[in-house]
Every structure is written in structure tokens, then in C-alpha cells.
Design goal:
The complex is a heterodimer of chains A (218) and B (613). With 218 residues, chain A is of the alpha+beta class. Chain A folds into two domains: 96 residues, Alpha-Beta Plaits; 108 residues, Alpha-Beta Plaits (2-Layer Sandwich), CATH 3.30.70. Chain A is 20% helix and 35% strand. Chain A contains four helices and ten strands, in the order βαββαββαββββαβ. In chain B, 35% of the residues lie in helices and 14% in strands. The chains are: A alpha+beta (218), B alpha/beta (613). Bound molecules: iron/sulfur cluster.
Chain lengths: 218, 613
């Protein structure tokens, strides 16, 4: 049995497809594609499919991963799956899994912002201001539902503005994975807090998953 | 620039997946090659609409014409309604994202009466005047079909054309006609008039209704050359009727997410309360081999893990055994389960259980409909108590521990003993369970009885009947509850409020249009949902329109009275319906059509006997 890792993008409207729905969508596509995949044993037998890192509803990504198990080696996996997937979900590559999902330590995200009332400069100042300071304290819900203050500064591994982008865009590397995970939405939340409202436009696209040594997750 | 407002709206709603389309297999066409645009509207949520078979069939049949582009549109839920209003945006289709007002034809499917206000709602936010009379040259032509089109009169103010009967052929004829009308440059008026000569198309504005002082209909006057009566369409062979090889597979979870194959149309049983059993006559079967091919294609193309064989009574299929055997040769290997939703208890056998789904051995549903043999004879539900008990025995011995039984209350000639009879029947099933040595070990039984309020429907023998009043319904519900003595039995019933409104709309006439409009103006949308329905709002709307709802729902109608739907010919003879009502009152049953023809009229309508023997 081969653990095959699918690398795929989830763009445009597909950002509104939840994790659970994405799961079903891939399940369908795998059945339709006729790939020789492994089914779990037992009463409620289903094909094996696992997503090492969940992406929140509303975010785009060009670097999602899904693991399946093949009973025999298969050819042309991306094109076979793509013919059964929505236009804006595209399998870009498939290869035998190299790393353990636990090795994911960070994600590179591209948050972009625009506002019809604020100049780019004003927006830029608000954004940088909202993330400056020795520590960044946010309220987080604990598992028991209580609110707790946490410093997220350490989970922002790097943050810089992209100079030649059309809209105000940042390149942020945030903690991701099972150890520490920072939802990129906090950047938007910080900015909104500062502006007193959400900017007219925001979009986050995840572009890269990395290990703690900064290597691409494969 | 990206559409910032659209993104804001999608982020603000709970289930954005309902509004984005983008499913694999969605049909998109090059507008420069399209001559006619059809917006197929389902007046309920995406999840409900996408579970419906009719829309899937017609989406494919219409799109099989290269120059026709049929797109889908569903009713936006309250949260999206608010967003559309906030940003003054229009309702759009999922395929192109264009607003409804840009289409040539906007078609609604009429599945239940309580969806009527959603039609007005969708037109309104789609940028189309809700009243037919206010639509002009540039506006789409609004059409509607489906089961409720058999009495379309309450919607006559809002719908330009109704499509009566099976839609597979007539929809495409209408589309082709519309293309030629556009090419000829016909005016709206000329286009509509011309469409009325297509068999199965009903143009209500060609018919003038006069009323008697007592409110009943005096006369219905067709305009010159208008067909009278207007005949429903009938697909002569279900086996040859088009059926899609693939469905648009939803990306979000819908009510029924499975490969559905219609195996029968029409029904041999003749249950007297059942509108579908009459308006879909004659009985037609799809061949076992065809069902097998369709099911296999659907599963391969859609990746489904469940096949559902649908009809009004699937176990009446003449080749049921063969059909299941064919399917079972490949379903297990392909990890596909089989489900048969419309089983009758009388031919529910061990063999059938083994052939259908192996998983989920928890619940089973049957519909005895009435609690006593006398009342079951009245409604012509030809099931005996022995058959019910033996069906349950089969179920229990093969591992089932829960049975759900469907009943109605308020049936014609019903007495209190019939209500008590429901509880007694449920008790006998509980007792049966505990008497069985082979019952599942260590598990207790649960019998759920679900009781609906009976709603008299057009084109049934009970179309003449007065519905019970609310007080009666409430009294009977209390009586039923107090008759249940076991904790293994649970009772659920429908609200009499919604059933009352449904009854008014089902047998209403054109004057109800004012009430529907007034209810909508007062905020009525999603009336089939608890979140939307308001009884008070409907009562207010009737009052504002000067309408006594009881006149429509709670009045016994003479055979000689002209019903609002009498000028529509569904092939069912009114004298037959009256005779059947007579037999009902005498508790006389009528044999199923495959045993003996009772002369309902449809054989003459199609020009051949329904069965070969
Ligand atoms: S014509 Fe006879 S056999 Fe045919 S549907 Fe009517 S009653 Fe049944």
C-alpha cells in the first residue's frame, strides 16, 4: 500500500466550501476517477482520505494536501482527479508522501486588503500599527469556553509587506500544524479592531507549508 | 476588480456554499451561441431543490438542445435575503450569475402549496414584476409546472403559462417554440397566445371566470380559439423517456445525496387521498435493464454510494426481483447501497430485506394511513392488519428494532374509534415484538407514529370533502395521545395550522391570488419552514383579500359544483371520482389497476388500455 499525497489548490468561490464538504467532494472524485484505493475495514467501510492540515472556511490556498492510500501504483493522478473536481479545486501534483503530517510547523499566507475609503497608505499604517509592539495580546476561547489572553507574537514567524503588489499585500509566515497553530484571521481581526470595522476587501491565500527547518512539506 | 460586495455577502451568511454553484458537471454554455435562456427555479433552499429528481431530469433534457441554456436558481435563505436587500442586489442563477430578469423563460416547479409565496419572493428579488399583468415586453415569461399545477388557479395572477403533466417533452417544445417566436419578433402577447396552442400549456389569462353569489364558480369562459378543456401531457413510455447519465453533484450536504432512478410513474393502487396516484396515471414502468444501466451510469459518473429506486410504490414494479438481482451483481463490489423508499408493507419480505441495504438496520417506515380496517377500506389503502403485523414480524426477525408508521387524521367518515385504533395498532406491534423469541437480544422496541392532518386534494375522490376544522384536529390529537399507553410508542403530528393553509391553497380559485400577494407583502416567505410560517399572517392576508378560508377548506362540495380545476383535463373522469367517493362512504374498496380496470378515464385519454391483460 502506498500513501499518496495529493497537492491541490482551492481558489475563488471554493474557499466557501467547508472542510467536511471538501472531504465529500474528494471522496466522490476518487470514486469517479477509478483510482485503486484502499477502503477501511469494518462495518462502515469507507475509502481512506485524510487532510493533514485543515484550512478555515473563507481562505484560498494553492498548497493544500490530502493523503490517500493506493493499492497499486497509478498514473496521471492529477488529471484523472481534476476531471472529477470543481474547476477551482485543482490537483497540481501527486507523489508518495515523504514526511509525517506532524512535521508541518508553519504556513506562508498572503493576506491582501483594500478599502474604498482609505488610501493604501492609511491602510498600510493601520495594518503595520496593529501588529507592532513587543507582544500582541488577543482573547482566545479555551476548550471550556472561557476567555483567555494569549500573546500571539511568537506565532508570527515573519511578516513583511510585498512591495510590487497591486493591493496592500503581506507575506506572513505563521505557526501551523498540531503544535502551534495561528489562524491567519487574527491579522484581519487586528486590522479591523484598529479601523473599527472590517476593510471593504480582504482575502487570504495560503501559498506554502513548511517544516520547522523551513523546508517545503512533501 | 473583484466584486467586494458579493464577497461580503457570502461571508455574512451561514452557508455560502448554497450560493456559489461551481459543482463539477455544471453546464455552462457560450452565450453567443445560446438562443434561449431558461432559469429553472426551485422555490426552496438549495439543499431541498438539489435533492429533487425532476429538476435534474429537466435540467438535462433542456440543456440537450444546444441553443438552449437551462440554469438553476434556488430561494435564498433569510440571512442571504437580508444581504440582498442590504446591498440592493438581485437574485441570480448559479451557472452564469445573471439576475432572473435577464432570462427569456423563468420556470418554477410547484411541489407543495406552501412554497407559493417563495415564487413571488424569487420573482421580486430577481427583478421581475410579481404580477403577470405588470410584465412588459422586456420581461421574462414566467412558467410553472409540477404536481400543484393541476390546480394552478391560486397562482393565475403571477404565472404567465402553466405546464400540465409530464414535463420531459413539452418543456423542450416550449423552448423551441420560444426560439422561433423570438426569431419572428413576436410581441409578448402574441408569444403567449401562440404557446397556448402547444398541448399541455395552459394560459390562464385566456379564461374568464364568473362567480355565483354564494361564491362558487358560475362559469368559465375560454377566449376564442382557446383549448377547452386543457389537456395534460403524458410521456407514453417511461422506459424511453430521457434520463440523465449524470447529475450535478452538490458540493455541500443536501437532503438526499444519492443516485435516484425513477422506476415507475403512476400507481396501480388508487388510494383515494393520494393526488399523485391519480394525476400521474397511467401506470408506466421503466424496464429492469434500463434501470440497471441508468443506475450504473449515475454511480460511475457521480461517485454516489447510494442508489434510491423511487416511485409511488416501488414494490409494484413488475420486474422487481430481476431489477434488484441485476443491481446486486455490481453494487456490493462498488460499495454502493441500495434503498427502496416506497415499500408497501404487504409485500415486504425477507428476500427484499436481504436485497436492499445491509447497513443501517435501525429504522423502517410503513404507511397504514388509518388505524382501523374500516377506515383503511374507506381510503382504499388495501392493507390488512395481518399484513401489517406480518411485515413487522419480518422486520423484527431480521434485526430491526424501530418502526415508523404514517397515519392521517381527519379522513372522511372518521370516528373516534379510528383514532383510538391508531394507538391500538401501535400497541399490537409493541406486543408482537416482545412475543417474538427471535427478537434482537437485549434491545427494546420503538414504534413511532407520525400523524398528518388530511388535506383534500384536486383530482382525487376526496376532492369533494370538507377538511376537519382546527378544533376537531386538536381534539383528535388529544384523544390519540391519551389512548397511547406504552412508553415504547411515540407520537408526532403535523400542525393543523399549516395543513389548513395548504388545504385552502390546494383547492383554491383565482381570487386567492390577492391573499397570496398580501401575505407576501406582509413578509411571508419559506412558509413550509417553521422559521417562515405564520398562521396569523395568513389569516390577516385572507381578511385583507376579503376571503373566507373555510369556504375553500371546510366545505363539502357537490359533484355538480364547478371546481376551479375542472377545465384542466388530467384524463381522470369527474364522474369516476364522484363514484369512488360514493364507494368510500360505503367502505367499499376498489381493486388495483393491474387486477381490474375501474374505468377512471385515463385509458380512453391515452387511447389504449393501461395493462395488456
Ligand atoms: S384506466 Fe383503468 S387501469 Fe388505467 S388507471 Fe384508470 S382505472 Fe387504472
Amino acid at each position: 500500500m502506498i500513501t499518496e499525497r495529493l497537492f491541490f489548490s482551492k481558489l475563488r468561490d471554493m474557499k466557501y466550501i467547508s472542510h467536511l464538504d471538501l472531504y465529500r467532494c474528494f471522496q466522490r472524485a476518487i470514486v469517479r476517477s477509478g483510482l485503486d484505493v484502499w477502503y477501511t475495514e469494518g462495518f462502515n467501510s469507507h475509502l481512506y482520505l485524510s487532510f493533514p492540515l485543515a484550512l478555515s472556511l473563507g481562505f484560498e490556498s494553492s498548497c493544500e494536501v490530502a493523503d490517500i492510500r493506493l493499492l497499486s501504483p497509478e498514473e496521471d493522478i492529477p488529471s484523472r482527479l481534476n476531471s472529477c473536481l470543481p474547476q477551482d479545486i485543482r490537483v497540481t501534483d501527486a507523489a508518495e508522501a515523504v514526511m509525517d503530517p506532524g512535521e508541518i510547523a508553519g504556513a506562508e499566507d498572503r493576506p491582501e486588503f483594500d478599502d474604498l475609503e482609505l488610501s493604501r497608505q492609511a491602510l498600510e499604517e493601520a495594518l503595520c500599527g496593529s501588529l507592532s509592539g513587543e507582544s500582541i495580546i488577543v482573547q482566545k476561547k479555551t476548550k471550556k469556553g472561557a476567555l483567555k489572553e494569549v500573546d500571539i507574537k511568537k506565532d508570527i514567524l515573519s511578516f513583511e509587506l510585498l512591495q510590487d503588489s497591486q493591493l496592500l499585500t503581506a507575506d506572513a509566515v505563521l505557526s501551523a500544524g498540531i503544535q502551534n497553530n495561528l489562524n491567519p484571521k487574527v491579522i484581519l481581526d487586528r486590522l479591523s479592531e484598529r479601523l473599527g470595522r472590517e476593510p471593504d476587501h480582504w482575502l487570504v491565500r495560503r501559498t506554502r507549508l513548511i517544516t520547522k527547518y523551513g523546508r517545503d512539506f512533501r | 476588480m473583484a466584486d467586494y460586495i458579493r464577497e461580503k455577502m457570502l461571508r455574512a451568511v451561514q452557508k455560502p456554499g448554497r450560493y456559489i454553484g461551481g459543482e463539477p458537471d455544471i453546464i455552462k454554455k457560450d452565450l453567443s451561441k445560446v438562443k434561449l435562456r431558461f432559469a429553472f427555479c426551485f422555490p426552496d433552499t438549495y439543499e431541498i431543490g438539489m435533492s429533487h429528481l425532476g429538476i435534474k431530469i429537466l435540467y438535462h433534457t433542456m440543456n440537450s438542445i444546444p441553443e438552449v441554456w437551462c440554469e438553476r436558481c434556488f430561494a435564498p435563505w433569510f440571512d442571504m435575503k437580508q444581504q440582498l436587500e442590504l446591498y440592493s442586489r438581485r437574485l441570480t442563477t448559479l451557472e452564469s450569475g445573471d439576475p432572473l430578469c435577464k432570462f427569456d423563460l423563468v420556470g418554477f416547479t410547484l411541489q407543495y402549496e406552501l412554497s407559493y409565496t417563495n415564487i413571488l419572493y424569487m420573482l421580486d428579488i430577481g427583478g421581475i414584476p410579481v404580477l403577470s399583468a405588470e410584465r412588459g415586453e422586456g420581461d421574462p415569461i414566467v412558467v410553472a409546472g409540477g404536481p400543484c399545477a393541476c390546480n394552478p388557479e391560486p397562482l393565475a395572477d403571477f404565472i404567465d403559462l402553466f405546464i400540465l403533466g409530464d414535463g420531459e417533452e413539452v418543456n423542450n417544445e416550449l423552448c423551441r417554440y420560444m426560439i422561433s417566436a423570438k426569431e419572428k419578433g413576436l410581441s409578448r402577447e402574441e408569444t403567449l397566445r401562440g404557446a397556448a396552442s402547444i398541448p399541455g400549456i395552459y394560459l390562464p389569462s385566456l379564461y374568464n371566470v364568473e362567480y355565483n353569489p354564494d361564491g362558487t364558480i358560475k362559469r368559465l369562459q375560454p377566449a376564442d380559439g382557446a383549448p377547452m378543456p386543457v389537456k395534460k401531457r403524458n410521456v407514453s413510455s417511461l422506459d424511453e423517456a430521457p434520463f440523465p447519465e449524470s447529475f450535478v453533484v452538490p458540493l455541500i450536504e443536501v437532503v438526499h445525496d444519492r443516485a435516484t432512478v425513477e422506476v415507475l410513474r403512476g400507481c396501480i393502487r388508487g388510494c383515494r387521498f393520494c393526488q399523485a396516484g391519480f394525476i400521474y396515471r397511467p401506470f408506466r414502468a421503466r424496464k429492469a435493464s434500463t434501470v440497471n444501466r441508468i443506475a450504473s451510469d449515475l454511480c460511475a459518473n457521480g461517485g454516489f454510494s447510494e442508489i434510491s429506486l423511487t416511485s409511488l410504490s416501488t414494490s409494484d414494479h413488475p420486474e422487481l426481483g430481476e431489477m434488484l438481482d441485476d443491481l446486486l451483481t455490481w453494487t456490493a463490489d462498488r460499495k454502493v447501497n441500495l434503498s427502496l423508499p416506497s415499500l408497501r408493507i404487504d409485500n415486504f419480505s425477507q428476500e427484499l430485506i436481504d436485497k436492499t441495504t445491509r447497513v443501517k438496520k435501525s429504522g423502517l417506515t410503513f404507511a397504514p394511513e388509518a388505524g382501523t380496517q374500516r377506515l383503511r377500506d374507506v381510503i382504499n389503502k388495501n392493507i390488512t392488519e395481518e399484513e401489517i403485523i406480518s411485515g413487522c414480524r419480518t422486520a423484527f426477525s431480521s434485526g430491526y428494532t424501530a418502526v415508523k408508521l404514517y397515519f392521517m387524521m381527519g379522513l372522511p367518515t372518521e370516528r373516534d374509534e379510528d383514532i383510538v385504533g391508531i394507538a391500538e395498532l401501535a400497541q399490537k406491534i409493541v406486543d408482537l415484538y416482545y412475543s417474538l423469541p427471535e427478537k434482537p437480544k437485549g434491545k427494546s422496541v420503538s414504534v413511532n407514529i407520525s400523524v398528518a392532518c388530511f388535506i383534500p386534494k384536486p383530482f382525487t375522490p376526496f376532492q369533494f370533502v370538507a377538511q376537519d376544522t382546527e378544533e376537531e384536529f386538536r381534539r383528535k390529537q388529544k384523544l390519540l395521545i391519551s389512548s397511547v399507553r406504552s412508553r415504547k410508542i411515540s407520537v408526532s403530528y403535523h400542525s393543523s395550522d399549516t395543513s389548513y393553509i395548504e388545504a385552502v391553497l390546494a383547492r383554491g380559485d383565482r381570487r386567492l391570488g390577492r391573499a397570496i400577494l398580501s401575505a407576501y407583502r406582509d413578509g411571508a416567505v419559506f412558509d413550509s419552514w417553521d422559521e417562515g410560517f405564520s398562521y396569523e399572517r395568513w389569516l390577516k392576508a385572507f381578511e385583507a383579500a376579503g376571503i373566507d378560508p373555510a369556504f375553500y377548506a371546510c366545505r363539502e362540495r357537490e359533484e355538480t359544483e364547478i371546481n376551479p380545476w375542472d377545465h384542466l383535463d388530467y384524463g381522470i373522469d369527474k364522474r369516476f371520482l364522484a363514484a369512488e367517493y360514493g364507494r368510500a362512504k360505503a367502505a367499499l374498496t376498489t381493486e388495483p389497476c393491474n387486477k381490474k380496470c375501474s374505468g377512471c378515464g385515463i385509458a380512453a385519454y391515452i387511447g389504449r388500455p393501461c395493462f395488456d391483460n
